[in-house]
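Handoff note, outgoing to incoming analyst
You'll be picking up this chain. Sequence as last confirmed:
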Amino acid sequence: MSGMQGERPDSAVPAELVVDDEERPARQLAGWAGRLIAVCAFAVAVLVLWQVFRPLAQGSQYFLVIFLGCALPLVFLSYSSGVGVRWLDRMDGPAAIDWVLAVVAVGVCLYPVWPFTIGTGGGGYNAFLDRQGLLDPVDVAMGAVMLLLVLEACRRTTGWVLPVVCLAFLAYGYYGGLLPQHWSIAHAGLDFDQIVDALYNSGSGFYGTPLDVAASYIVLFTIYGAVLDFSGAAKFFVDLSVALFRKSRSAAGRTAVTSGFLLGTVSGSGTATAVSTGVVTWPILRRAGYRPEQAGGMLAAAGVGAILSPPTLGAAAFIVAEYLDVSYLRVLVWATIPTLLYYLGILLAVEIDARRFPHRAVEPGDEIGQRVSAWKLLGRFGYHFLSLIAIVVLLVMGVSATRAVVYATVLTFLLAIVDRLARQRNSPERGTLREFATGTFTALSMGIRAALPVVAVCAAAGIITAMTTKTGLGAQLAALLVRAASAISDNATVVLAFTVVFAAVALALLGLAIPVTASFVIGWAIIGPALLTLGVSAPATAMFVFYFSVLSEVTPPTALAAVGAAAVTGARPMATMWQTLRYALPAFLVPLVFVLTESGDRLLGRGSAFDIVAVTALVSLGVAALAMATGGWILGVGQAHTTARVLAGAAGIALLYPSPITLGIGIALLAGAAALTRFGRPGPDAAAERPETRPAGVPVEQEK
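Most recent structure output, in case you need it:
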């Protein structure tokens, strides 16, 4: 649906906000099938909203059974099988096999609440729960079919990797007894009935915390995102970014990064944010002299920050709140300073690129047809910020996150209708009311459809958590991680440092293959206990796992935000991924501060105001030094050669470890880098980087 502003075509509004990043494209549904699926999705949205204010008396797990029974069939109808056979794989509507799978999914998902009897155990939800640990053969058969359907739904929405990981955990649970018993990860082995029981008839498994978070929080935020799409907020955020900057060499880059930051506050998807901002800002970047790979890398890095940006963080942030039993507001506070540091690193890289490469000064406002004042845009459309502010204010007032986002959604709708009434004074009011009704229906149904990939991932993540819990694998792998670090040194600080490095590498590799949500769930189960054992606080541990799960989204060769940005700019995907990594590289060291330093908690907003400000300023200087090292330019001085870059990098690392000693060392190293750059002779690498000898925007690495 078109946005509110009329200055330019609404090309910047994403079709789907707040979705997980690793997902396949959904079908473009039309006709009677599309209408039927839209009605079903709308009904699911009503159920979710009803649960917020009038929870089902039978409990939250009963609601999850109903929710999954409604959502899982929609996955098969909305996503194709990908087998390449016309009668099995259609993009314009469900095939016959999809309808069969949808009907079967309804049956097996709702089987636990069927009131009539199948088998010997009796019907009804309470009778089903009473059979926990002693399932009937029919229960086992239903659970087995449910397992296959969840894996297939996950494959359709995210690809093969996560289902294969789930199968590996299932194999470990079933065949663990065949492992040599002197291995620390060996266990007695689970029979198939025990596995099905853990997945199908327990508070973990399919109906564990990940699905609970998806049904209780994520769906509501996807609905909120769809309503913002209806209101034109996404378009406003991009237009505001375009209007903010005057003519300069760095204006184009600042516009792209600011667009990603503003749109990221209401998104939650790096890929959607990168593509949405790229549609508008790529012409500006191209006019400024950015090459496609460089522009795509910047857009992707700025887009991935959406998963970190309050107040609508990625799906894993809601799981953090549930695992740690804290309010969502607390997680927002923890995320605020690291998010600002992330974007600080990207903005500094933009400023460095504007000096290092011969970018042209541009006037970003030319891209929307005329120069529009930022103040004018704020005065006319600034009300789009009100719903974001409302979420934070309501959370501070103690309102639950679920109710806060519902109230913010209603506020967004009301403001949109008031705005349209003001613009259509001469039109019949009936048209606006019809538009309101249509918009409500569309936003609610699209909100549910946008959440389907996350629902599939969260249900599959329950397989991993159930097997990890049932076999004790998490504790065993955590102990192995600590033992590997202890083998290097007996010093507690060194052991912690190596454990953190091993954990960071493991999370980065894990994130290459699976979505952020599943990566966090596995990382928390395996790496979380290791860090907690070494005395790291639970908030620092959770945010460390969360941030590295997110940062894996910018790591080649599976950085999907970079792939999306490359599609917009026409760049080579792999080269774009490396550029994305370059822009985001300083952010990789910031989460280490959470867990390696005593003052790391200050970056999570924990401690006195003075300490928080002091540590943030110090780490900001460290991020700046790292940006100068990776960018090859000492700000305020000039282009740096290898030695100066090494000194700047060392200064950045020292400044990320906040203490008076490291502050002195960091400043001295940074001063040395500036002095070498100012008074030293440029090295051969610096000479090769002179702007006049290289096409606009081409990094040295690409030219070589």
